Amino acid sequence: METIDRCRLHTTKAISRKTLCKSADFYYSHGMHIQVVAPQPAMMQAISALYAKTWLATYPNEAYGITRDDIKERTDAMTDPEKVAERLVNIMNVLKDPMQFYRVAVDGNEVVGVCAGKVKDECVHLSSLYVLPERQGMGIGTQLLDAFLAWAKTHKKPIQLHVVTYNTGAIQFYQTHGFVDTGRRFTEDRFIMKSGNGLPEMEMRYQVPESTTVSVS
């Protein structure tokens, strides 16, 4: 999961199709021309805007006391020009680190999804996977997750993720792709909102096929 918020959402900058083709890891066609690629500097505003839009569409929840203002405070920070510049530096450093993963899904010049992960001492952790709300249900999340899992499996460690407990669509998506609920529930300090309420999270673990099962001590 990530943090976000204050300026208006930036529009996607034009991104060279030629540049994308050079850095593409996979190419898929499901009625769209989706590529899963390493992010380029010109994409940073679009990536930040995508985080902000998906957070605002996903996390406000009256039952849990998470207001739109709570999330808007985070998303405004995500699209602040200084934060966008920081994200550029951070992502470029991530791309140099074999123990970290970051890919974006693009449809032509539009960034439509992002996925990040990293190797920890005890596991490989899926840090974030977001697809634009209007592009969900089109297979883009699956393409990003497949790319992440292909990378994660090379590290021979258990694969885990955290997801907000009321994000039922995401939970069902991960279950469909082999993740199971470990039963762990928690709220991280960094996701305590200004209202005092926090995002409730659950842990899920990928069930590796028997032929490649990783032992867990």
Report on this model:
- With 217 residues, this protein is of the alpha+beta class.
- The protein contains 6 helices and 8 strands, in the order H-E-E-H-H-H-E-E-E-H-E-H-E-E.
- The chain has an 8-stranded mixed β-sheet, with helices on both faces.
- The longest helix has 15 residues, at 44-58.
- Residues 2-30 and 212-217 have low confidence and may be disordered.
Provide tags for this entry.
217 residues; alpha+beta; Aminopeptidase; eight-stranded mixed β-sheet; 6 helices; 33% helix; 26% strand; globular; disordered N terminus
Total DSSP helices = 6
| Proportion of strand residues | 25-35%
Give the full name of the CATH homologous superfamily.
Gcn5-related N-acetyltransferase (GNAT)
Q: Helix coverage percent of residues? A: 25-40%
Q: How many structural domains in the coordinates?
A: 1
Topology:
Layout lengths: L16 H7 E6 L3 E5 L6 H15 L9 H11 L2 H15 L4 E8 L2 E10 L4 E8 L8 H14 L5 E6 L3 H9 L2 E8 L14 E6 L11
Parallel strand pairs: 5-6
Antiparallel strand pairs: 1-2, 2-3, 3-4, 4-5, 6-8, 7-8
Give a brief rundown of this model.
By secondary structure, the chain is α+β, with helices and mostly antiparallel strands. 33% of the residues lie in helices and 26% in strands.
